[in-house]
Amino acid sequence: MASYVGVDWASRGWLTVAIDDGEWTARMSPSIHSVWFDHHDAESILVDVPIGLPESERRGCDRGAKEFLGSDRARSVFWTPCRDAVEADTYDDARRANRDARDDSLSSQVWGLIPRIREVDRLLRDVTEARKTMLESHPEVCFEAFAEEGLPSKHEDDGLSRRRELLEGTDASADGVYDGFVERYIDGQPPWARRIGNANRDDLLDAMVLALAAKVADGDFERVLDHAEDGVESIPRDEAGLPMQIVYADPE
Question: What is the top-level taxon of the source organism (predicted)?
Fold first, then answer.
């Protein structure tokens, strides 16, 4: 039985949504290693974290994702910091490393994500068999691929509603799943027991669309890549051999 998994960082842990034979489940995991331990036999695990860290230049897949989303939503894709910045111990050191590598600034928001980037990078460098299963994706790219027209911001009420409609319209098994998750894991839990926070509703949708993209693609992903040479798409890799690409599913 194939399992398809979407993973998004949600403030206090990794929010993981899995689809197994049409059955949807959600849980919080303390580390990406825990996610791999629980889902190492999945068909695909799509994670909203950069995989493949550049030495100097900006990643072409980040540029391509921004273009894919258009100017109104391009800001949802950040420029992946260089490896030296990810490995830095302090914010000042990371900013200096990124500036020295490519004259790029490094926001405090991206600095806050660096521990998660480092965590995924370490897993994939240590556990080579995870590389075929755990792939980088982006929720907004996945939603855009499922939509017939541009989407409003997910931070607006109609944006959240439209994304819920896309999930349910793409796969009937998603009908009512989001509401069920909210009732069970957010509204139905006392504050002291709450694992998925009230502020993480959009993270829940993001993890859901990643899992659904994994299911729809079933291993046959579309890719936002660096460039194409002679009509053949090439997948650039970082110094550790990790691919610099963003995958998504074509509903057609």
Answer: Archaea
CB 47, CB 108: distance < 8 Å = no
Number of domains observed in the structure of the chain? 1
67 CB-near residues (< 8 Å, 6+ apart): 74
What confidence category does residue 165 fall into, taking pLDDT thresholds of 50, 70 and 90? very high
Asked whether residue 147 is assigned to any structural domain, the reply reads yes
For residue 183, count other CB atoms closer than 10 A to its CB.
12
Range of the domain at 236: 3-77+133-248
pLDDT for the residue 187? 86
88 lies in some domain: no
Query: What average pLDDT does this structure show over 162-166?
Result: 92
Query: For tokens 């009230």, what's the residue?
Result: 198
Domain contains 23 = yes
85 domain residue, yes or no: no
Residues in the chain: 252
| 174 vs 231, higher pLDDT | 174
Q: What is the pLDDT of residue 157?
A: 76
Rounded Cα distance between 77 and 140, Å, is: 9
